[in-house]
Design a protein that fits this description.
The chain is built from 14 helices and no strands. It is mostly helical. The protein has one domain.
Length: 311
């Protein structure tokens, strides 16, 4: 049913024409610009954005974005499997994607995972910077630039990015209400943990029963990161009690650079250390768990200790 609606020619035809319009505007220079913009929503880059928000802008917003991002990614995986809509260049021979973008556009098209990551992890930072209208507008536009890049590069139709954007906004809003609510509870971390456990049972049940058949390791990875964020929430509430440091901008810049280097280096080291071993199948699960623990527990402790010793 969903597939028939999304691939109906009356709905699809104007979207294809829009992609062809953008296609005719391409230049080698613009291709490079949008290929680089779309990379902001690939690999661990979205998690770097969210981590920077957590460490240096607003801790609560970091928890919100981590949680919303994983819920959005699981929803994306489920909708791709339910809709099984093929990529634009397969739907119509009028569409010619930028070749360099095709390698990062595997599988089904609807909805756009890049959009979910871009809007949630980048535009979502605006909820933490709302008092600074210029900065908020910057993050909003940067996230929407990722969304637009997917159409410009010819790897997603407008409906792919619109639905991805819609789910991102819904999850940011819903999760923010949830986090604000449990923050007022004495043992809100138990509610957080219970919600993650219920979701995990539901997802695993769907996998074991055969309802979910594709991208199974993606679900496990996303659940693992969500569990890591939940653990980080508990550890922070009970022990770390991290607060964003109120210090000079250049100190924050140094903290950000060191954090990014450590995250990038350690995640790649773990990835290559696990590859080809008994744990190779689970390397993404291990990587995602480390990302969540590093972002919400390890590096906040390091920052807190360094700032305290400096003072």
């Amino acid at each position: 049913m969903l597939h028939e609606i999304l691939t109906n020619q009356a709905i699809l035809a104007p979207q294809i024409e829009y992609l062809v319009f953008l296609q005719n505007l391409r230049t080698p220079e613009l291709d490079v610009v949008f290929l680089n913009i779309t990379k902001l929503a690939e690999s661990i880059v979205p998690y770097i954005f969210v981590s920077l928000c957590y460490w240096l802008i607003d801790k609560k917003s970091g928890f919100i974005l981590f949680t919303a991002l994983q819920l959005g990614m699981m929803t994306k995986d489920l909708l791709k499997e339910l809709a099984f809509v093929k990529r634009p260049w397969i739907l119509s021979d009028k569409v010619e994607p930028v070749k360099a973008a095709v390698a990062h556009a595997p599988g089904y098209s609807f909805p756009s995972g890049h959009t979910v990551r871009g809007i949630t992890a980048i535009s979502g930072i605006s909820i933490a910077t709302w008092k600074n209208k210029f900065l908020s507008l910057f993050f909003i536009l940067l996230g929407f630039a990722v969304l637009f890049s997917r159409n410009y590069l010819g790897v997603h139709t407008p409906q792919d990015v619109i639905i991805g954007c819609l789910f991102s906004i819904i999850y940011i809003f819903t999760v923010s209400k949830f986090i604000n609510w449990i923050d007022k509870k004495e043992k809100g971390y138990l509610i957080f943990g219970g919600a993650v456990l219920v979701l995990a049972v539901l997802v695993v049940s769907c996998i074991l029963s055969g309802i979910i058949k594709e991208e199974i390791m993606s679900y496990y990875s996303e659940l693992t990161l969500l569990a890591g964020v939940c653990l980080g929430y508990y550890v922070d509430k009970k022990y770390i009690k991290y607060e964003v440091p109120k210090t000079q901008w250049y100190i924050k810049f140094i903290v950000a650079i060191i954090g990014i280097i450590c995250m990038y280096t350690l995640t790649h080291a773990i990835y290559f250390a696990v590859s080809g071993t008994f744990f190779d199948l689970y390397k993404r699960v291990i990587l995602y768990f480390f990302l969540s623990i590093f972002s919400t527990i390890i590096y906040p402790i390091v920052i807190k200790m360094c700032i305290k010793n400096r003072v």
